[in-house]
Amino acid sequence: CCRENILKTAKALVEDTKLLVSGAASSQDKLAQAAQSSANTITQLAEVVKLGAASLGSDDPETQVVLINAIKDVAKALSDLIGATKGAASKPADDPSMYQLKGAAKVMVTNVTSLLKTVKAVEDEATRGTRALEATIEYIKQELTVFQSSHVPEKTSSPEESIRMTKGITMATAKAVAAGNSCRQEDVIATANLSRKAVADMLTACKQASYHPDVSEEVRERALRFGTECTLGYLELLEHVLLV
Fold it and tell me: Where does the chain show beta strands of DSSP type E?
């Protein structure tokens, strides 16, 4: 029953997404209604996904984390979409904010699709690891896009913090290699969850450190380039584990 409820609520959220996008070109009232409707739907979706995660039992916490991460991705994408809708409201069709809105809507639909694939895979133990890894690869790609954007972080951190965060990448790499060797579903799921956090933390710390007041423009560019290269290298490693 959980799967049916998740499917039904996810479909409603996709409809809300369409209303949000079309609402940007219509009245403020319609836009407000679409935003309220999507907020209600995401709350319902989070509840049914949490129920689904709980039904797996405490014997499989890593798969529970995969499900919770999937709904977190959808919620974050919805928040970004509402922000993009706000920015595009009443703007002409060729305004840059309209392209941002379309991009945000695409990410939203990608994440809902990813959630549904994850829910389906959870029922089949033989594909759980593969699906978790695919979802993590998609998540890291989205995080990399945010990292490469011109958006300046709200706070900065020290270069030492950035160095500290690279240790997580080293640990996750060792775990990924071990999972590639063992090919056990539980090892692959644990790798997916660890990789997701390690790379996201590294990218956040790298960008924050690169905008530290003491950092020159040249050093910032180098730091951002190496953050990207590290992520691309890690994605390649995960792709290899997926092939194995």
Answer: none
Here the CATH number for the domain that contains residue 33 is 1.20.1420.10
pTM listed for this prediction = 0.82
Q: Are 145 and 205 in contact (CB under 8 A)?
A: no
Give pLDDT tens digits for 78-137. Answer: 999 998 988 888 787 788 888 888 899 999 999 999 999 999 888 787 889 999 999 999
In this structure, the number of other CB atoms found within 10 A of the CB of residue 83 comes to 13
**What is the tens place of the pLDDT at every residue in 171-224?**
999 999 999 999 999 999 999 999 999 999 999 999 999 999 999 999 999 999
Provide DSSP, 95-158: SHHHHHHHHHHHHHHHHHHHHHHHHHHHT-GGGHHHHHHHHHHHHHHHHHHHHHSSPPPSS---
Cα separation of 77 and 97, whole Å? Answer: 16
| Mean pLDDT score across all residues of the chain | 91
23 vs 220, more confident: 220
**Cα(84)–Cα(78) distance, rounded to whole angstroms?**
10
Q: Are 190 and 229 in a shared domain?
A: yes
CB 185 within 8 A of CB 125: yes
Shared domain for 71 and 6, answered yes or no, is yes
- Count Cα atoms within 13 angstroms, Cβ side, for 24: 25
Residue 115 Cα to chain centre, angstroms: 11
Residue 53 lies in a domain: yes
34 falls within a domain: yes
Number of domains in the chain: 2
